[in-house]
Fold this sequence. Notes:
By secondary structure, the chain is mainly alpha-helical. Helix content is 52%, strand content 3%. The protein has 11 helices and 3 strands. It has a 3-stranded mixed beta sheet with strand order 2-1-3. The longest helix is centred in the C-terminal third of the chain and has 30 residues, at 269-298. The structure holds zinc ion.
Amino acid sequence: MKKCYKIQLLATLSFILLLPNTKGWGEDGHAIVCRIAQVTNDFPSSSRLSDSAADAVKNLLPKYAQNDLGSVCSWADRVRFYLHWSSALHFADTPDKLCNYHFDQLSENSGDCKDQDGEKGRCVVGAIKNYTDQLLGYGKDTQYNLTQALLFLSHFMGDVHQPLHVGFTSDKGGNLINIHWYRRKQNLHHVWDVNIIETAEERFYDSDINGFTKAIQENITKTWSDQVRGWETCNSKETTCPDIYASEGIEAACKWAYKDAPEGSVLEDDYFLSRLPEVSLRLAQGGVRLAATLNRIFG
Ligand SMILES: [Zn+2]
């Protein structure tokens, strides 16, 4: 009995220890992306989603989510510990130092999206395409679990917009770059998953995720309003275009995440305040594109 307890405690501890490095955006980042897609704050009863997409999302969400996509947007992070096959789908590695790398799934040598074993299509870009295709079977006879497909798609659409989820291979998207976030030891990947968002919420929004979400939504309708159509648009034949999202990601990783953040650096206000607009922009794009993709899927 005692031994059993020890093993369980060990398992729980290693689970907790593993968490910080393995999340996508943290809980808050993912929730923000999904809430931007599903609801607009200015008109709480209205949605970025078309009526049919809103209906399909409501039908597919598990009952306990109470029609709040944001509340289950991190489900994919919670299950990766037992759905081991899904781990590789949260990110895409890019060749070292290639800031203008272009993902192109349609090209002959689409060797850019693969897992550690070299299996093609197993990265965040391939996953977004795959779950989009599965969801196109909605309302038809399908072999797929479309609730899972919706939760995976919503989560991965967030991940692909976190610049370091398409970071360099050798530093594992900044996971191997040790820095200090103010006084705390941290790695660069975690700063982009969690710390910038958390610090923004604490400092500017009374530690309230809704305040930050609302500020981003206001930017979408004001500052970025003339760009939103461009974010939504894919090539006319495509339902979603993660190649573009990921290619933007590595460019942003070089320009904002890796820049001035080498191993051993101390990141403080200079870094935080200059990177926060980019984090807000990527969260906004993730939400807008998730809604646009769901609208194209469900009509
Ligand atoms: Zn993730």
